[in-house]
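Fig. S4 source data, part A: sequence.
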Amino acid sequence: MTTTQRDTPPSDPLPRPPFPLDRLLAMLRRGRPMPAGRVAIVRLYGSIGGGARTADQIELIRRLRDSKRVPAVVVDVDSPGGSATASDDLFLALQRLAAKKPLVASIRGTGASGAYLAAMAARTVVAQPHAVVGSIGVISVGPRVARLFDRLGVEVSETKAGRLKGMGAPWREETDEERAKERELVDAFYTAFVQRVASGRGLPEERVRELATGEVWLGEQARDLGLIDEVGDLERAVEIAAQAAGVPPRLAVVHLRRRLLDRIFERFATQLGERIVDELETRLGHGLRT
């Protein structure tokens, strides 16, 4: 008589330790690394303002400047400008980057005012044929509601130390001294803007002042005036940057990783703002539209 022996199931393997949650979160925050040898695309879209957004852009520019994986950078510009100080901060950050590796600016829709100032750090500036370029100038604006307050019977109490403290307050008329000080600040920003354009474009300051009327030009006109180097699109800008760096013309769009909720909120706010502007332009008949 033969006996059959049942196969004994293999013993369970030793349980693996769970994947550390903190390590997983760190991997998600880092994202995929920048592919080595590609031209990095930095987007400069929308109005330029102070605060976290500009700080993030400057930090990204710094990292690209110091990264050995990035041979060249193209700043993709579609912005009407904004804060004078924030625009100059971006210019200085891009200028440091351009001192270490090829930097090309590509103006796709609008490269005006502070955005054009930031683009002056690039070795080459490319703009699409119908891009809006220029608006070299400075403006300081603010409402004056003193007469409105008088009609409403509203009084504002003001206690200050320093005769120019509170300059620009909307609830009262400005003094002659405040007006002169504001004029001084505007002129100083304007002079610095003209000097940066003259240096970036290789033009005499006198010629830049002739062009610095606050007006804008289309891409081909801007090229003829010497405000840009070439008419072309983003791919052409990548080709120029890659050739200068001696690498194939391959690109990678880069940005700082942020929390998911921050990205969702910013996208919602941007879409809401664009819809409001579109509705106002439609009702008021203002703005260049196709």
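Fig. S4 source data, part B ends here. The radius of gyration is 27 Å.
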